[in-house]
């Protein structure tokens, strides 16, 4: 018994040292602090008021997902749109009164051209759609994360949408050897070609969320990064609430360029305001 506790003590000590060492290495290689969003001393309340007066409408793709759910809640709380439409593959039910004015469009993503009308007449589009290779296989992942998203963006643009906000991923790179990052990078780049008046790509690291669905690898990463963020600040993981807040706040800000990429630290700086 005594030996068991000695071994346990040594193991705990070893893992603590390991976490601190990893934290130190990650901090060293971390992205620099984003000056742009940190120094943004704008008053969000007045930006919200101005935006609200424009009576704009938006749609959300992926509102049943973890980030989409929180984004929807944030949009309802801040009340900046006169109309919110959820576009998804199934009808969602909400009990809270705050959700009663939502419009829902149920579409078949395999035949999106038949549902072009669902994408018409929105000023702003948010996309939090996505699946995983583990859940849908490589082909299924490409179908959802590339084909569904590209077609939706194309229809939205044709339907008069001027702003498109896309949740992508940290490390997205169209030349990556990793399928996930490559597809994310391809989609990020392709949508830019559609020529939205404003196009914002959000590239967060690991999403910190208590997901109901079982995703063992993501669960492990979350536990690890939860431990790590209590030791140091890192740009590897982020609570979904921060991502959602950043997407909404960024909608209110006049961008410097038509297309922009918000890396993890930009999202953190903006989402914590
Ligand atoms: N997990 C991470 O750590 C992480 C990190 C960075 C970026 N991201 C990216 O962030 C985005 C959002 O992630 P999340 O975890 O919030 O998403 P999520 O909880 O997995 O939700 C995904 C959404 O996509 C919809 N969807 C999935 N498969 C579909 C299909 N075959 N047809 C139609 N709709 C489908 C889901 O609808 P149903 O509810 O009907 O299934 C849901 O609304 C994804 O693109 C993801 O790759 C994730």
TrEMBL record:
Superkingdom: Eukaryota
Keywords annotated in UniProt: Acetylation, Disulfide bond, Membrane, NADP, Transmembrane, Transmembrane helix
The keyword Membrane is annotated on this UniProt entry: yes
GO biological process, one term: import into nucleus
Sequence intervals crossing the membrane: 12-29
MF term (GO), any: catalytic activity
NAD(P)-binding domain: residues covered: 62-212
An example Gene Ontology CC term for this record: cytoplasm
InterPro entries: NAD(P)-bd_dom (IPR016040), NAD(P)-bd_dom_sf (IPR036291)
Short name of any one Pfam family annotated for the protein: NAD_binding_10
Subunit structure: Monomer. Forms homodimers during oxidative stress. Interacts (via N-terminus) with elongation factor EEF1A1 (via middle-region); the interaction is direct and competes with EEF1A1 binding to guanyl-nucleotide exchange factor EEF1B2, thereby inhibiting GDP for GTP exchange and reactivation of EEF1A1. Interacts with nuclear transport receptors XPO4, IPO5/RANBP5, IPO7, IPO9 and KPNB1 as well as GCN1L1/GCN1 and LRPPRC probably through their HEAT repeats. Binds NCOA5/CIA.
Protein name as annotated: Protein HTATIP2
Organism of provenance: Xyrichtys novacula (Pearly razorfish)
Top-level taxonomy: Eukaryota, Metazoa, Chordata, Craniata, Vertebrata
